[in-house]
């Protein structure tokens, strides 16, 4: 995934951005000749068009020709007219449109491609990465946000997870665009909302199918090979067969399993036999870095990395794919967030269609083994999304019941681990209550809200994963997160898209005749819990060493003695291991951010002295 560009308005101060510290910088100028977009991107990741006073630049994956883009640009008169242009473009991309002295900048609706902005000497500048702006402006880490990440970890949902980790650097919500003007103002403007979930499964599946066909078409890179994950699950296997229609000689890849009960290998082997022109690469457990290998290694500097336990494996995977000639890799990330059985839809379904709602509720109770009393209590609990956030602040230190039914405005309730300090808890409560005063639902239906919540919470982490792949020269692509694919899936009625009795029914219906029936009818999901247990045991000493000199502890956010006791205690399940993973992501990110900030300040001093 391409990374690293800055956008400036057409003002004299923009001249300073000609010499940014970016490797092999590229420049798209304003008509005045001043820098407009400065950064680094591949030649096939930019499409430009100009019609009269309207200039349009698309950066990312967007299969659109210059001629088509110009036709769409010809209909634009004002920044709000860009709404129709954006909805007409397939893919996942940043869109930059200049209309006279008004500049509109936006990312993808999932948050995979984000927009951040800050003020430098009174001039607003935008970028695709918050950390780039933090370096340029010398911004300090937002200590309240750091505390909130350390306390809530991976449970912290959007919109709070969308926030930048630096004071004075702002991240635009995915459903907004940023409007920059020559008068040095910057404003976030809402433009996108999810479609109403009105289509039946039979009506919506062909649209999802068509969107996925477009999203995977012509993916062969200009040089090297195309590779695709082939885990044996429905998500990646579907993408393999879609991609193979255009690139039959692709390379498939999967990790070997440590869990004896993981039946991924069976389904992956069956799928591989149906792809005779492809090469199939399986990385056995013995050649994979264990989970939590090299835990002190930094990931990506934009924000704490959500998947720190598999960071070494991700880098190892990217290096191996590159060694086998891959220059572009397709992964199924985003499919769980888009097609999984999030049960928040039960609230509205029980009110509008009680008999159908009761059948679904009985199915969820049986399959997920929710406690009946807790489920009834959650279903009858009133309150809007703001009250949910306030409740998280009030109950942050309370114990969490087992098998809590995830049918509220969030998923799991936010709960603090024993190792966080009272100072961290106080900062987190302030942040949660501040969020409650500003929050709005992503959709009126709680179920639709949950799908968008899942997408917006994890998509930025997938973007970071893409940058890790890019370190090895491999571009990571995630078609399930393309804007038009997301819209097509969200348009299907929730009780047909989600059922406790069938696994991902919308995706299975959309892929009929494309992926093998045995995979589409699969009712199991691969389990990697044993990988986690083995990796934690093997790398326990290294994990303890990371936190022995903890930056989070030095800033009063965690108690290392309590943390050590929790790490060494017997683990009844993987709950603590997952919490440890997210704390590790915060620790390694904070070390990197502190080092970069100190280095940036030193450079500022040197530049001032010279």
UniProtKB/TrEMBL annotation:
Pfam annotation, one family: Asn_synthase
Q: Do you know which InterPro entries this protein is assigned to?
A: Asn_synthase, ASN_synthetase/amidase, Ntn_hydrolases_N, Rossmann-like_a/b/a_fold
Protein EC: 6.3.5.4
Gene Ontology BP terms? asparagine biosynthetic process
Name the pathway.
Answer: Amino-acid biosynthesis; L-asparagine biosynthesis; L-asparagine from L-aspartate (L-Gln route): step 1/1
**Gene Ontology terms for molecular function:** asparagine synthase (glutamine-hydrolyzing) activity
Catalysed reaction equations from the record: L-aspartate + L-glutamine + ATP + H2O = L-asparagine + L-glutamate + AMP + diphosphate + H(+)
Asparagine synthetase domain span? 208-591
Task: Specify the enzyme's EC class, one word.
Answer: ligase
Looking up SUPFAM superfamilies in the UniProt record yields: Adenine nucleotide alpha hydrolases-like, N-terminal nucleophile aminohydrolases (Ntn hydrolases)
Q: Which UniProt keywords apply?
A: Amino-acid biosynthesis, Asparagine biosynthesis
Q: Which domain of life is it from?
A: Bacteria
Q: Which PANTHER family match?
A: ASPARAGINE SYNTHETASE, ASPARAGINE SYNTHETASE (GLUTAMINE-HYDROLYZING)
What protein name does the entry list? asparagine synthase (glutamine-hydrolyzing)
């Amino acid at each position: 995934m391409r990374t690293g560009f800055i956008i400036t308005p057409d003002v004299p101060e923009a001249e300073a951005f000609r010499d940014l510290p970016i490797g092999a910088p590229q420049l798209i100028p304003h008509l005045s000749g001043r820098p407009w977009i400065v950064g680094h991107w591949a030649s096939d990741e930019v499409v430009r068009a100009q019609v009269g006073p309207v200039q349009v630049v698309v950066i990312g994956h967007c299969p659109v020709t210059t001629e088509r883009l110009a036709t769409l640009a010809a209909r634009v008169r004002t920044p709000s007219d860009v709404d129709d242009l954006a909805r007409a473009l397939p893919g996942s991309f940043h869109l930059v449109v200049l209309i006279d002295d008004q500049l509109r900048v936006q990312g993808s609706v999932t948050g995979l491609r984000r927009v951040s902005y800050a003020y430098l000497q009174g001039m607003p500048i935008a970028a695709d990465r918050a950390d780039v702006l933090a370096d340029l402006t010398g911004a300090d880490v937002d200590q309240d946000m750091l505390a909130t990440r350390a306390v809530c970890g991976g449970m912290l949902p959007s919109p709070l997870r969308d926030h930048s980790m630096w004071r004075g650097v702002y991240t635009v919500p995915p459903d907004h665009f940023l409007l920059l003007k020559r008068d040095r103002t910057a404003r976030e403007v809402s433009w996108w909302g999810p479609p109403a979930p009105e289509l039946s499964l039979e009506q919506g599946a062909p649209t999802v199918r068509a969107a996925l066909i477009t999203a995977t078409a012509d993916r062969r890179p200009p040089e090297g090979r195309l590779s695709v994950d082939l885990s044996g699950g429905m998500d990646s296997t579907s993408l393999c067969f879609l991609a193979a229609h255009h690139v039959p000689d692709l390379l498939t890849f999967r990790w070997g399993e440590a869990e004896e009960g993981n039946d991924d290998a069976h389904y992956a082997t069956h799928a591989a036999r149906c792809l005779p022109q492809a090469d199939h690469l399986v990385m056995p457990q013995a050649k994979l870095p264990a989970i939590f290998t090299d835990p002190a290694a930094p990931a990506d500097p934009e924000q704490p990395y959500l998947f720190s336990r598999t960071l070494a494996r991700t880098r190892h995977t990217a290096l191996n794919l590159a060694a086998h000639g891959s220059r572009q890799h397709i992964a199924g990330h985003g499919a769980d967030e888009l097609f999984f059985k999030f049960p928040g839809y039960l609230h509205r379904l029980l009110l509008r269609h009680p008999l159908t709602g009761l059948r679904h509720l009985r199915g969820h109770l049986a399959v997920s083994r929710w406690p009946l009393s807790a489920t009834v209590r959650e279903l009858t609990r009133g309150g809007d999304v703001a009250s949910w956030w306030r409740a998280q602040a009030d109950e942050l230190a309370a114990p969490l019941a087992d098998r809590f039914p995830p049918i509220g405005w969030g998923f799991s309730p936010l709960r603090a681990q024993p190792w966080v300090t009272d100072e961290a808890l106080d900062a987190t409560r302030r942040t949660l209550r501040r969020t409650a005063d500003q929050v709005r639902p992503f959709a009126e239906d709680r179920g639709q809200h949950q799908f968008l919540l899942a997408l917006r919470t994890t998509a930025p982490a997938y973007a970071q994963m893409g940058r890790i792949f890019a370190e090895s020269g491999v571009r990571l692509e995630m078609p399930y997160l393309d804007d038009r694919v997301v819209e097509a899936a969200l348009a299907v009625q929730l009780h047909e898209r989600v059922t406790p009795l069938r696994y991902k029914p919308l995706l299975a219906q959309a892929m009929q005749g494309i992926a093998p029936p045995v995979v589409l009818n699969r009712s199991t999901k691969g389990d990697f819990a044993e990988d986690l247990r083995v990796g934690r045991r093997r790398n326990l000493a290294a994990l303890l060493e990371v936190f022995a000199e903890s930056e989070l502890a030095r800033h009063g956010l965690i108690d290392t003695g309590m943390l050590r006791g929790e790490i060494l205690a017997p683990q009844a399940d993987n709950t603590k291991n997952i919490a440890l993973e997210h704390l590790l992501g915060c620790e390694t990110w904070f070390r990197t951010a502190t080092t970069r900030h100190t280095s940036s300040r030193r450079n500022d001093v040197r530049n001032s002295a010279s």
